[in-house]
Amino acid sequence: MAGPAERPKIAGVIFLLLAGVAIAAIILQTWWAISQDRSLTFKSEYENGLVTVRLLEEHATQTLREADGNLSTVINAIQSISRERELNDDIIRELITQAQPFNKVLKALQYVNTTGKAFVSTIDYPAYQVDADERTYIPYLLKHPEIKHAIIGHPFERFYDTELVVPLARNLFADNGTHLGIISTDISVAYFSSVYARVAKDSKAIVSLFTDEGTVIVRFPFDKKYVGKEFKQSPVIKNLVLKEVEGNFRDKQFLDEKNQIERLYTYRKITGFPIVSVFARDNDSILSPWRERTRDRVIFSGVTILLLCILTFSLWIHIHRLHSSEDSLRKSEMSLRISESKFVNLFKFSPVPLALISLADDKLVEVNDSLLRQTGFQVQEMMGKSPQELHLWEDINLRKNYLTLLKEQGFVDQFEMRFRYKNGNIATCLLSARLFESDGDKMVIFTPIDISQIRAIENEIRQLNTDLEERVRQRTQSLEETNKELGNALDSLTTMQVELIRSEKMAALGSLVAGIAHELNTPIGNSVTVASTLQDHAESMENELSTNQPRRSILAKLTRETSKGANILVRSLDRAAQLILSFKQVAVDQSSNHRRNFDLSTTLNEILATLEPMYSRTAHRLHTDFASDISMESYPGALAQIITNSVNNSLTHAFEQMEHGNMYLKTRLFGQHQVEIIFSDDGSGISPEHLARVFDPFFTTKLGKGGSGLGMHIVYNLVTDVLGGKIELESEPGKGTTISLLLPLIAPVKQTDRFAA
């Protein structure tokens, strides 16, 4: 046995060991809690990601099924007609026109026959026929008529409104099984964007929808280069084929090649369609709350360890001094009592709820203030009573499990249980406990941490996720109603614009008629005068011939004057005929949407002949420089209106305060498939503040003086929409104006209906 002198040493060593064990336990418990919290953080992120991709899947599924349902309705209608009569392309096109999509999301129906000829019917534009383009799904379905299900094509921009759409296509069969071609509809990518952009912004995440083959349909944050981009060779796409319907994976560059940041990707495959929805957040964003909680845990554990170290060091010093003398021993005993008091105070005033229980009789020995505040009991109400007598445990069986673990392991960590307070409230707590001996008695120190608020927040999040579907549905319905109202307003504005353009065209044609009538007045008046003179000469010749001896000199004179008058009459009538012929051709072209082949220089000369009365009686002149042998297949009426408006603008605006002005009209080939037409004048020019608004509708500097403000707006629409070309305008004050047109030699057929308006 150790002597009296050695006992303080042994006690000091044991005390230091106990302190070391306590510090190690605190460190290990803190590390374990941090590790568990990190795992739970990623697990929670995965669960939240699953909720999000399921909602996105339902949104996409609803849209795709609606599109597929529209296609099925049209196919059923075509098959029903095929039972009554033999189908051809014209009948199918008529049915397609009558069966336009039912909303603004599904923008168009397209029919492609077995030869590759395409016919498109849209909501916003009249129906038109074109050759099928090189979209991959068209030759694929034409080559594989045995495919009965719908397939999704590559996203693309439509030519007439540059809107991003994704096609959904199916093979079309008659009722007897005859393959008729392909029918498809375009789904607006913007419909997905309205939902995906909000989710990506709110969650600071990457949200995407792509096909099983790796073609991106939509990706937010939005970057146009990703729409339609192929990731077919990506290892992620290859691995997703083998994965389950939903799950997660990690990657550093999928859908974000610029930033090499590891992200947690949560995905779900859309049932019935080869499409996958993805929700991804980077690790920094996911672990940001965890880092804050970890910092707080480390600080708390560090403070606890520091206090324990200070207390341990203090006690060790006092024990060490016992070796000096009995007086020193008494001082040490006093110091020990002080230290014990500090330890008691540390226990009593600890911010963590703590309690000591005697394992032998299951009675509470000590409780600290934090536990009293948490439970609502007074100290005298708890001391000497067991947890069972106080009814602290809601589930007795769960308490039995806790005691079993404690006796087997000597400790319990993060044991979730339901704790009943004095007021009857039930709280969810994480119970940690340690078993130790004190004066030969087995004691248990335990701490119940209330996590009711955390669980309530988790339940609230689950409820919010449940309510999200209903909010999305309501928001979608509201957006559809708004889109419908905007569509009605747009139709009204379009109708008004068409009427204004028609009025402007008729006004231009009326001005042309007035000019031609004025120009015809001179040759026709001359012809009437000469015809009257010829009539007088004929009567004189008849009188001379009726005499017995007609005079040769008089007959010769009458013959010469008659021949001279006939020549004048022929020239005057020939001039009138040329004017009438030019007017007839230009008027026919300008009042219709007739498309024909024509020689450019001939047509321009005919147009200028009808415009000559506008400036022939002024000092203004128009100079031409036409390249020869330029043949076009286009719309001469549109070209005539462009030249007419340009000449009229020069005479009305550029030469308003000038006595002499020059206009120039030049043409030249531009490459092999285009022609450049340049009209310019040396007039007053256009001020910079007006230059940017020349092509705006209803913009005019002659407001209230006969100007409608539609002339140059019509020119812009005719060049870009009808003739399929480009227009540029250059002008400086005092240096004149130049209008440059770059037109294709063969105009696009697809815009004729709009020009007809």
UniProtKB/TrEMBL annotation:
Pfam families: dCache_1_like, HATPase_c, PAS_9. SMART domains: HATPase_c (SM00387). Keywords: Coiled coil, Membrane, Phosphoprotein, Transmembrane, Transmembrane helix. It catalyses: ATP + protein L-histidine = ADP + protein N-phospho-L-histidine. The chain crosses the membrane at residues 12-34, 298-319. It comes from the Bacteria. SUPFAM superfamilies: ATPase domain of HSP90 chaperone/DNA topoisomerase II/histidine kinase (SSF55874), Homodimeric domain of signal transducing histidine kinase (SSF47384), PYP-like sensor domain (PAS domain) (SSF55785). Its EC number is 2.7.13.3. Residues 339-386 form the PAS domain. Residues 454-485 form a coiled coil. Residues 515-747 form the Histidine kinase domain. PANTHER family: SENSOR HISTIDINE KINASE, TWO-COMPONENT SENSOR PPRA. This is histidine kinase. It comes from Undibacterium pigrum.
